[in-house]
């Protein structure tokens, strides 16, 4: 009888040891499977992205290098996704620009699912007439948010200290930057390379705008948009802060608020402020 008790006690103790060891390993095991699942989600999202989204947002998500179905280089029409102000931090600046009050995960998923009214961004979810299931929407969102990593998000991009007045900017002389005369030819190249023409059209082709207002007459129209502002001041302010004034008429009807225009040009031009001078020269010297 005593032998049976001893054996039972030993068996019980061994069972508890095994269960305890398994319990200790459970978090590690769950972390491994969670990581593997997330990896598959991102990998699946990458394939969906390159098959459907890269045409507008670019092969690296920066809206810089886009190709059509035949492999021809085309102007990117989408906003940059591989972008500090979309994927870094708990509440990236892109959310504030669009007045979104949820998380960045919700923002990306909702934008993929429902699209953006007044832009070329369509609804992709079957819930809104698109082709993607809910899990595919989540896969794409996971891929986009995976651009955020410790190195990429370590430091906010440098921002040039833009004067409020365009006159002050055009006459600026500091140790870092001295404004030169505007170069309309370079401005035309910038207008194309930044994809401005994909939204606002060609300046010599009325009606060529697809999303935003046509800018071929902006020197005349801009002077009447905001009381007390010159056309030059209006364009300068609108580039740096697209929500400062919402133009009344866009290609598909009234312009939407918040603006569909990307809101990070204050950072995009920070490395080369002279590009702003040249772009203004191109837009206002037609």
In words, what does this structure look like?
- This protein has 286 residues and is mainly alpha-helical.
- The protein folds into two domains: 89 residues, Cytochrome Bc1 Complex, Chain D, domain 2 (Orthogonal Bundle), CATH 1.10.760; 119 residues, Cytochrome Bc1 Complex, Chain D, domain 2 (Orthogonal Bundle).
- The strands form two sheets. The protein has a two-stranded antiparallel ribbon with strand order 1-2.
- A hairpin with a 5-residue loop joins strand 1 and strand 2.
- Helix 1 crosses helix 6.
- The radius of gyration is 26 Å and the shape is elongated.
- The mean pLDDT is 89.
Q: Layout of helices and strands, plus pairs?
A:
Elements: H1 2-52, H2 54-57, E1 66-67, E2 73-74, H3 84-87, H4 93-97, H5 104-114, H6 134-145, H7 166-170, H8 184-193, H9 196-200, H10 218-221, H11 231-240, E3 249-250, E4 253-254, H12 265-268, H13 274-284
Antiparallel strand pairs: 1-2, 3-4
Helix pairs in contact: 1-6, 5-6, 8-13
The largest pleated sheet is described as: 2 strands, antiparallel
Unreliable spans:
none
Q: Number of DSSP strands?
A: 4
Strand and helix order: HHEEHHHHHHHHHEEHH
Q: What proportion of the residues form beta strands (DSSP E)?
A: under 5%
Label the overall shape. elongated
Annotation field: number of helices? 13
Relative helix content: 40-55%
Strand order across the biggest sheet? Answer: 1-2
**Structural Rg:** 26 Å
């Amino acid at each position: 009888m005593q032998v049976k008790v001893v054996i039972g006690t030993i068996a019980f103790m061994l069972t508890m040891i095994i269960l305890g060891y398994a319990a200790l390993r459970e978090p590690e095991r769950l972390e491994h499977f969670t990581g593997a699942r997330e990896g598959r989600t991102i990998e699946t999202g990458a394939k969906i992205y390159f098959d459907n989204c890269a045409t507008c947002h670019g092969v690296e998500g920066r809206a810089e290098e886009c190709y059509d179905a035949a492999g021809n280089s085309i102007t990117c029409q989408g906003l940059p996704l591989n972008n500090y102000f979309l994927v870094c931090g708990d509440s990236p600046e892109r959310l504030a620009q669009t007045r979104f009050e949820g998380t960045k995960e919700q923002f990306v998923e909702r934008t993929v699912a429902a699209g953006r009214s007044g832009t070329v961004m369509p609804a992709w979810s079957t819930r809104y007439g698109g082709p993607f299931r809910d899990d595919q929407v989540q896969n794409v969102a996971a891929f986009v948010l995976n651009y955020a990593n410790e190195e990429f998000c370590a430091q906010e991009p440098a921002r040039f200290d833009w004067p409020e007045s365009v006159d002050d900017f055009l006459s600026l002389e500091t140790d870092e930057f001295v404004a030169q005369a505007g170069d309309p030819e370079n401005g035309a190249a910038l207008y194309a390379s930044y994809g401005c023409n994909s939204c606002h059209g060609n300046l010599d082709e009325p009606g060529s705008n697809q999303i935003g207002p046509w800018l071929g007459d902006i020197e005349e129209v801009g002077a009447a948009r905001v009381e007390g502002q010159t056309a030059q001041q209006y364009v300068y302010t609108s580039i740096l802060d697209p929500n400062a004034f919402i133009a009344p008429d866009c290609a598909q009807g009234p312009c939407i608020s918040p603006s569909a225009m990307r809101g990070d040009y204050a950072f995009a031009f920070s490395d080369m402020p002279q590009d702003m001078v040249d772009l203004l020269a191109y837009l206002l010297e037609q």
